[in-house]
Amino acid sequence: MPSIDSGYYFLTVLVPVRCAWANGEENERAAPIIELRKTLAQMPTAMQTPHSHNSGEISAFSKSTRTHFARFAVIDRLGYNGYEAADPVFETVGLAKPSLARTELSSPYLLFAAEFDAPSGSRNYDLAVYLRELWDVMEEDLLDIFSNCVAFDRDTITTAADFIEYIKKCELETTMPFNFYWAEPPKNLPSLTIKGLAAGGVFTGAVMAMVFYALFAQVGTYVAIIAAVIAFLGGAIGFVAMRFKKYGDRPFPAPPDGDLMSVLKGLHLQNTFGQFVVDNQGSDVADLHKAFGHYLDENQPQKPDPHHPAGEVYR
Asked: Which is nearest to 164 in space by CA: 186, 136, 196?
């Protein structure tokens, strides 16, 4: 299924940026592309380095309980690898010329890409829940960003429902998702069987063969037989291909403990248990048992809290 796989939603949004100038700060005329770049440049990032950690500022996406990755980018021109060469033989005799044309965008575009938890497996539902959460935790940031884009008006887009509708209009299907893979094959994963494919292929091919034989019977027996054989093969191959496509379009099931809150809990236990091991080197059995009990009481491995702070890579 496009955009959703393994319990995650891979959101790709491409929005055209306004070309007409607008009133900026202190009623000065400002280009939307400049205002957009300024807004994005001033947004805090995640605490991924010692410098960003010491700044004390963190991305507003860290307030979301579903966001794994999020990125904004401005696309104002397409990549250009040089002109497209023509066939040297045809070019020599004057029948072809190299293409010197360069494709340009009619306007800059804002790219918004995000990966977030999609536990229900429903594209419409999970996307709506995620966008509503974003609107709740970073409404002003979203308004500052998207107000520089075409058809986004602060006076008309005032609710989460309006924002969801706007994003859906600009969404592109993501057909090449990226995420981690299962360490072991998932249990009860639907799969195709050779017997099932053979039975379905033979049945479908037989039905197609009978239909085509009846259609071409008046033309001649040999023609009808040839048409029936071709129809049988086409029906059988078509059935197998459709079954493969149907199963291939199914999203992979979500891996255990792959949602954001479980990942944050795992990071917390990883960090704290490593320190626990260091602190208790050389302890006798009684002291180690007591210290481990205290560790369990303090860190609650089976409960969501405490967990690693979202958005803090360097810590």
From this structure: 136
Cα gap 226→230, rounded to integer Å: 6
pLDDT tens figures, 185-195: 777 777 788 89
User: Which residues does 118 contact at the CB level (< 8 Å), separation at least 6?
Assistant: 4, 7, 8, 9, 126, 127, 130
Pairing of the two strands 22-23 and 8-16: unpaired
Q: Which residue has the higher pLDDT, 267 or 53?
A: 267
Higher per-residue confidence, 142 vs 29: 142
Tell me the pTM. 0.77
Domain boundaries, the chain: 4-172, 194-248, 257-315
State pLDDT tens for residues 299-311.
Answer: 999 999 999 999 8
Other CB atoms within 10 A of residue 1 CB: 15
Q: Which of 118, 141, 9, 124 is nearest to 63 (CA)?
A: 141
Start-end of H helices in the chain: 32-42, 50-55, 88-92, 123-146, 160-170, 194-216, 221-248, 260-279, 285-299
